[in-house]
Q: What sequence folds into this?
């Protein structure tokens, strides 16, 4: 099955700086990679996703890059704000069928004002 | 649209008691999922239902059973609760098409004494 590793497990940044979270996956057939943000006591919410036919996707201050050859993908948050403080999870779909997601272990991001 | 609705939100059980967690979605999604999230950890798949009438085991199915009652509803049952099943349980759903995001409910916080 799929295995997703996520680094770092915690990340502290100064407000206005950038944050980068990296994930690697094992299944070369995976072709869909969502990112979720989870605030304390809340549900995971999709913030951005990328499919394997593109190498980069951007939505305002958030961007995701994908390197299929190296089997890794990254989340970039620019101009961080205190409300970006949360736990972020990467995920990869298992196989080409796309029914199951495997999640990384999560990154706790703290944005210091 | 309410999205994915889980009941109850909180529950305390004694070891050996049984309980059913309920999940319903109003997005006309075919696929539904049950995850558990232990403190400070990621999401682990318990069971999923790719479509009405089918269910499959995930990563951590032991001690649980599921029922896909109809297209809208997917329930998770603990037959004989154990302290190791203390966790937050999330239900999610998605469209049939591959490479679509999963949408999560607000979770059920379950404590087993």
A:
């Amino acid at each position: 099955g799929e295995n997703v590793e996520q680094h770092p497990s915690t990340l502290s940044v100064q407000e206005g700086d950038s944050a980068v979270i990296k994930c690697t996956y094992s299944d070369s057939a995976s072709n869909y990679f969502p990112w979720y943000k989870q605030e304390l006591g809340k549900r995971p919410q999709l913030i951005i996703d990328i499919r394997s036919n593109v190498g980069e996707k951007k939505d305002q201050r958030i961007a995701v890059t994908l390197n299929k050859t190296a089997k890794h993908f990254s989340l970039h948050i620019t101009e961080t704000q205190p409300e970006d403080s949360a736990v972020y999870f990467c995920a990869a779909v298992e196989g080409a069928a796309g029914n199951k997601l495997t999640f990384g272990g999560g990154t706790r991001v703290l944005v210091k004002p | 649209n309410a999205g994915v609705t889980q009941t109850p939100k909180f529950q305390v059980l004694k070891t050996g008691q049984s309980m059913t967690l309920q999940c319903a979605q109003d997005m006309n999604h075919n696929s539904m999922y049950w995850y558990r999230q232990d403190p400070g950890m990621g999401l682990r798949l318990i069971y999923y239902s790719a479509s009405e009438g089918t269910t499959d085991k995930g990563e951590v199915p032991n001690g649980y059973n599921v029922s896909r009652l109809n297209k809208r509803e997917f329930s998770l049952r603990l037959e004989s609760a154990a302290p190791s099943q203390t966790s937050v349980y999330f239900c999610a759903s998605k469209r049939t098409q591959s490479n679509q995001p999963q949408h999560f409910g607000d979770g059920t916080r379950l404590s087993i004494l």
